[in-house]
Amino acid sequence: MSQSSSPSVTRPQDVVEAAGLPAGSGNMRPGYDPRLGNEDLAPLRRQKWSSYNIFAFWMSDVHSVGGYVTAGSLFALGIASWQVLVALIVGIVIVQVFTNLVAKPSQRTGVPYPVVNRFLFGIKGANVPAIIRGVIAIAWYGVQTYLASEALNIVFLKFIPGSAALLEPSFLGLSALGWISYAILWAAQVAVFWNGMEAIRRFIDWAGPAVYVVMIVLAVYLVSQAGWENISLDLSSGEPLGFWASLPVMATAVAIVVSYFSGPMLNFGDFARYGKSFRAVKRGNFWGLPVNFLFFSILTVLTASATVPVFGELITDPIHTVERIDHWFAILLGGLTFVTATVGINIVANFISPAFDFSNVAPHRISWRMGGMIAAVGSVILTPWNWYSNDQAIHYTLGILSALIGPLFGILIAGYYVVSRQRIKVDDMYTMSEKGAYWYRKGYNPNAMWAVVGAGVPTVAIAIVPKSLVFAGLLDAGWGSISDFSWFIGCGLGFALFALLERVDPKVPRLASETGVSDGTADDVLEGHPDTATASLAVAGAADAASGEKAGVQVR
């Protein structure tokens, strides 16, 4: 289906290209308020990402240093390797289910996450979840850049011995060499981002498979050096746990996996909007999450297991594993690979999303590119190397961040699937008129705002208080695991509170009999049409075709 020229389509209204796409890709229709939209935030005219593009997105997302460190940190929980593997798979299947849920509203409407939230939070209220998500993404952006800079440090130390002198002087907790590596990666990521979404898509299409090849080579090398007979898959420390005693620990491991992916999961609407159909997005998620992650998990367990006989100790950080291989080619290849992998996840998970979030605050002043630069600068100000340095810090940090993400996720799912029943009036998300469907009360939906507070405050407390008391020696260590479930608690609370408030005092319009509405319950009419309009126009076009009318849309 293609959209012919009509009075409803305007010329580009931005001084920059739409999120790096050709000018005019965003459908800024007549009547759209410039305070609410620009080419970056407007519904897409063309949604052409295939299942492979989504699959490659997840390959880049999974194969990062942070992913390996988080997966490796599960061994410190005291459960056997096979139990770690089971926890990893169960966790990723949960991620797949929720990712599909959050993908649909953005794919069907062709708009990013902060715009989708306007139908729930109100035209102005949508800035609340956007800013929260933007700050979280900045934190993760800094963490991932720091972890990649550690790999680059190894390359410098191996090939430029004099660089060791730069390890002594430090500023704000980071060595001079660390600052150099961080700056190089910071600039490289900005360069890729600045070239736009198509350049990013091409990068992740290449980066994901390339990292896979190197990780397979690393696993095969270590296993061959150790000898298969010398590899034990039991990497747990301490006394082995019985079956019943291990179940709550495995549940904690599952929660940690979901927490790690909670950011990309919430952000996924920013990428699902480019999917040529919802079915294509779901196929990409299937291959990119459970299938891809199963192979990733096996590689993680095998590689970590082989480090014991080869190096005499368990090493779960792949950067340190490569560092221990005393061969220049291995260090060069491994270091650059992990740099590439981490740059990939950082751009797709932590650069694009805050770019949309900050642009959403003032679309007429902040472009997508400017929003991304705000995130890049903010990542340095947070000095992530000072708070992300060990297993306990990883779990603690994930709990706090997830506590903020969970309620936002629950509110979005409740609002789209339960309250509005998958019906969104796309054009009304771009008007400041008080007669608009999503104006609510001065631009804010009070039910959504109360749901954020009601779910966010107790969830953040659950994420912070138990582990703080454990660290202070006031509680047994077992109580600290409650914090690992903060995402689930926040998601459940957000879902229940918003659904309840909307039932008691309905605010979100049901749009049961209106036209020009994106209806997620209708057939996926976009499948097989690479040149697509927005979902709302596509659904309307399909209805017109069925009744023998054209209505300005040509169906082929």
TrEMBL record:
Membrane topology: Multi-pass membrane protein
Entry GO MF terms: nucleobase transmembrane transporter activity
CDD domains assigned to the protein according to its UniProt record, in alphabetical order: SLC-NCS1sbd_u1
Parts of the chain that traverse the membrane: 54-76, 82-103, 115-143, 171-194, 206-223, 243-263, 284-308, 328-349, 370-388, 394-419, 448-465, 485-501
Localization per record: Membrane
UniProt keyword annotation of Membrane present: yes
GO cellular component term, pick one: plasma membrane
This protein's UniProt keywords: Membrane, Transmembrane, Transmembrane helix
PANTHER family in alphabetical order: NCS1 FAMILY NUCLEOBASE:CATION SYMPORTER-1, NCS1 FAMILY PURINE/PYRIMIDINE TRANSPORTER
Family to which the UniProt record says this protein belongs: Belongs to the purine-cytosine permease (2.A.39) family.
Protein name per Swiss-Prot or TrEMBL: NCS1 family nucleobase:cation symporter-1
Species per Swiss-Prot/TrEMBL record: Microbacterium betulae
